[in-house]
Amino acid sequence: MNRLSAGLKYGTFITLLLWTLFPIYWMLVITTQESSDLFTKVSIFPRSFTLEHIVNIFVQDQYMGPLINSFIITVSSLLIVLVFGLSSAYVLGRRTFRSHYRIFKSSLMIWILLVRVLPPITFALPLYIMMNDAGLLNTKIPIIVAHVLVNLPLVIWFMMAFFYGVPGEIEESARIDGASEFMIFTKVMLPLVVPGIAAVTILSFMASWNEYLYSVIFIQSPDSFTIPLKLATLNSEQELTEWGKVAGGGLVSVLPVLLTAIFLQKHLISGLTAGAVKE
């Protein structure tokens, strides 16, 4: 019975793993095959090898520009979100508010949560009007602001639990030793919540990197395209039969998120599972 249970467990795990990784493998197979082989009998194993499709998306389709644009937008919004999100989560999670400020705190937390749960399209029109009046359309600023608007509530709510879980004795000891509030936050509290920071970093990175809605609304020039917009053009009617090029574009777009997840894997797992077991 134990062997049967173990066999079912590992069999299920392997099946789910193959189900998850197969799309990436399939993109790799299509990307590295000759165009002539892609129009013959379909095979899950490559019959040829070429880097032509990867080279074409960078040479013919100028794929490097969207990569740089997405990187700038993602990193900029991520830095803003972490700076404001971590500091806000620290204040809301650690500080005790006076009685007449508790209603304000509760209302603020509800509004923060409301911004997160509302559909992103809800904020598209107000943001468009504001950015149009400011003359900032077709720039990276509207998209960065939109990404901050969407990801900031996630960071605040996620990190509040981590800051709240730090024993108060640690903070009191640092305060007795003469540490300022800023030193307590940066030198004491942040190192203790690194798993949570890693988790919100990868989640915010993925959300910004793959975001399409605000990009298609605010970007009007091909020079400002992000990765999702560029991939949409690769799937246009003119490029419909360029399967190798489309798969190559998708494969390249996956790599930054995959490398980030691998780099933060250890902290990501501990961050996502924090609070699952009560002591």
UniProtKB/TrEMBL annotation:
Superkingdom, natural source: Bacteria
Keyword presence, Metal-binding: no
PROSITE patterns: ABC_TM1
Cellular localisation: Cell membrane
A Pfam family assignment: BPD_transp_1
Main location: membrane
Record's bilayer topology term: Multi-pass membrane protein
Domain ABC transmembrane type-1: 67-264
Membrane-spanning ranges: 7-28, 71-92, 108-129, 141-167, 188-209, 246-264
Keywords: Cell membrane, Membrane, Sugar transport, Transmembrane, Transmembrane helix, Transport
PANTHER family on file: INNER MEMBRANE ABC TRANSPORTER PERMEASE PROTEIN YCJP, MALTOSE TRANSPORT SYSTEM PERMEASE-RELATED
Family per record: Belongs to the binding-protein-dependent transport system permease family.
Entry protein name: Multiple sugar transport system permease protein/trehalose/maltose transport system permease protein
